[in-house]
Write a structure and sequence with these properties.
Layout: H1 2-51, E1 56-58, E2 75-77, H2 92-95, E3 97-98, E4 104-109, E5 113-115, E6 118-122, E7 140-148, E8 151-156, E9 159-165, E10 168-178, E11 189-192, H3 194-197, E12 204-218, E13 226-228, E14 235-237, E15 248-258
Antiparallel strand pairs: 1-2, 3-4, 4-7, 5-6, 7-8, 8-9, 10-11, 10-12, 12-15, 13-14
Length: about 260
Amino acid sequence: MVGIAIGLLVVAVAMSALMVSRGVSGTVSDASSIQQQSAYAMRTIGMQLRQAGSLFLNPNPGNVAGNDTYMAPVVFETTATALTGTSNAFDPKTDTISSASGNLTVGYRRYKDPVFTSTDLQALARNCLGGPANTSDDQRVESIFDLVGTELRCAGNGTVAQAIIQNVANFQVRYLLQDVTTTLGSPQIRYADAATVGTNWNRVQGVEVCLVLYGTEAVSMPAGSSYLDCDGTTSVNMTTLTGARANRMHMVFRNVFQLRSQGLF
């Protein structure tokens, strides 16, 4: 009987240690998964924002032939008209950055270059979903990021929106707007939402993206455990949340991306 009691005691201690170990392991795995998702989302958004406003440097706008091509002047093509009724155009004033109903729309010039792997010209730039295809007549690479439910989705160039990450509690975008009253040589930048930017998207110098992601593992946390939301002031109590977010780890991620070619048009 004594042996059995000791054996049961050892099993109980081992099971307790196993449960604690599993809980710690699950929490660490949850945190790692959240960070991986946020890194992927920021990388995908950042790749598009860093290209936003890119123009096409035409090395031979006059179509000079023969041995005189090295003397041809080069020029940046600032706009591109639609080639067909279904393709999109590009105007850096309106297509570089914009927002509607809380989404983030990014665009830049699409063009084709010679590549050593093909005799045909190839369009190397792609949107957040890997399009458009090389056969497309689109003159603009377009990516539209939007939060739908708890999914951050992306669409562009006429494609159906697809989720790029899940378990998103909040997706907020702020714009770094240059003040028009700024003295020459002394620019001043202020944060603004899409409504404040209005029609002045060509004055946006950068974009701040904030994401709040939550985990899938239930976590035992002290009462009153909270985090600051994307606005930096709202305190969210994680112990009072309901549904899929109840007692789940929440993490806030923020990044600022500078735009190119802004202020030139």
